[in-house]
Design a protein that fits this description.
The structure is a single chain. This protein is mainly α and about 260 residues long. Helix content is about 75%, strand content about 0%. The protein contains twelve helices and no strands. The chain has helices at about 5-15, 15-35, 40-75, 80-95, 100-115, 120-135, 140-155, 160-170, 180-195, 200-215, 220-235, 240-250. Helix 3 (about 40-75) runs antiparallel to helix 4, helix 5 (about 100-115) packs antiparallel against helix 6 (about 120-135) and helix 10 (about 200-215) packs antiparallel against helix 11. The radius of gyration is 34 Å and the shape is elongated.
Length: about 260
Amino acid sequence: GRAVNTPRVMRLMKVPRSLFVLLAVAVGHAALLQAPPSRQARAAAASRRASLTNAQTEETVRRAEELLALSERQNYENHARALQTARQALALWQTTDDRAGTARAFAHVARCHQAQSDLPEATENYEAALRIWRDLNRPREQASVLTSLGYIEAHKGEWANAISFFTQAEPLVVETEEPRLAGQLAAGLAYVFNESGLHEAGLEHFRRTLDYYRLVPDDDYSAALAIVGIGTSHYLLKEYPAALSNLQQALATLPPGDIN
């Protein structure tokens, strides 16, 4: 048979047993690293990835909310800057699955366009918001966008289209819960009726507008504007004493320069 290398065997026999144990552990660890991960390990890794994704999404939504709030403030003074900021917020929301946030951003982009009388772009963005709110079955938000679309059509002098949007919005508004939105809707209809020569209907709807705004806490300003509408309706009906009385009442509340 094969000759045994006696000196080599003797040297191995003198190696401490603990070294063989360490070697066995090292080999076993290497094999473990090369083996496919267990079901539990795969689940833990997926959970870590999901947590990271959720954290990234939360940060994206937080930043989008900040940009939207900033744009709303900017829109009082600089519509172009507000529009740029609103678009940034919209772009962030579109990277998430927050469809409500995306709809809110579309609606605010539309308001920024509307403030600059860019009505086609405003309409396009309002319609994008409306599609999402309908998918999400959110009546209040649908009513708000429909009301805004009605105002755009009224601004264009498209009375029939304006009335169509307003009347679509009406059944979606719970008047006792949303008196401000109900007031905006009634005021839009009142304006359209007056501009199209239906002054009696205009007066009726401005009175409804006032009733709604009186339900809104701490909003004497909007109520005063409704009284201006009532006074204007009386003037168009050639009811001059009633017109003068209502306009004087409004003047007592509105800041100088708000009635021209």
